Amino acid sequence: MTSQALPADTEAASERARRLIRADILRGTLAPGQKLRLEGLRDTYGVAIGTLRESLSRLIAERLVVAEGQRGFEVSRFSAQELRELARLRLLLEGHALEHALRAGDMEWEGRVAAAHHKLSQMEKRLGAGEAGAIDAWRRFDSEFHCALISACGSRTLMATHATIFDRYLRYQNLALGFRGPIAVEEHAALRDSAIRRDAARAREILAAHILGGIDHALASGAV
C-alpha cells in the first residue's frame, strides 16, 4: 500500500511513527543491525502493525532500515564503505553550498555563523575539560554550525539534499565519530574565520580536512 492510499488519520500516524523511529535510529537508541520486531515497535510507538510497515518502508527509502524478506526489518548496519561514500557526498554538497553562501552571505548570515560557532565552542571547552555530559549538546551545535555556514547558499533543493546526507552521516557521528579534541576545535575556528573573510578556497580546504580527518579517526579507532 502506498502512502497516497492511506486515510488521512493513518497517514498522520505513519508519518509520526516514521519520525520517531528515524530519530531513535539517528541517535542510536535503535542500534545498527538491530532487529525491528513489529510487535515490540507497536508497543513502543503506539501504532498498528500495518501503519508500522508503512513507516518502515519509508525508512527503507532513506536507507536507514533494510527489509529481510519474510524475516521482517532491521536497522541498517554500519560499514566503512558507506561512511566514506557519505563523507564524499557531504563534502561535495557542503563545499558547493559553502562557496555560494560565501558569495551571497550578508551581515545576518555572518551573525548566524558567529553565533552558531560560539555555542559550539562553549561545548568544545566543556568537553575539553572532561565534561562527558556535554557530548549531546556538542553534536547538536556542531550540526547547527555547519548548517549556518551554508544557510545563505540560496538553494532550498541543495539545502534539503545536504540535510538528507548529513542525517545519515550524523548516525555515524553519534555512534562512531565522536569529538576529536583540539584539532576539531582549531578546524571549526579556522572554518568560521575563512568563511567570514569570504576565502572560499581556504574554507573548502579546511572543510575537506575536517570531514576526511573525522573519517580517518573513526576507521583507525575501529569504531566502524
- Give the helix level as a range of percent: over 70%
Report the total helices. Answer: 9
Beta-strand percentage range: under 5%
Low-confidence stretches: 1-7
- Radius of gyration from the alpha-carbon trace, in angstroms: 19 Å
> Could you give the distance between the termini?
35 Å
Q: How many strands appear in the DSSP assignment?
A: 3
* CATH top-level class of the largest domain: Mainly Alpha
Order of helices and strands: HEHHEEHHHHHH
Based on helices, strands and strand pairing, what is the structural class?
Answer: mainly alpha
CATH third-level topology of the largest domain: Four Helix Bundle (Hemerythrin (Met), subunit A)
Overall domain count: 2
Principal-axis shape: globular
- What would the average pLDDT be, to the nearest integer? 88
- Can you tell me the CATH architecture of the largest domain? Up-down Bundle
Strand order of the largest sheet: 1-3-2
Which labels suit this protein?
about 70% helix, Arc Repressor Mutant, subunit A, globular, mainly alpha, about 5% strand, three-stranded antiparallel sheet, Four Helix Bundle (Hemerythrin (Met), subunit A), about 220 residues
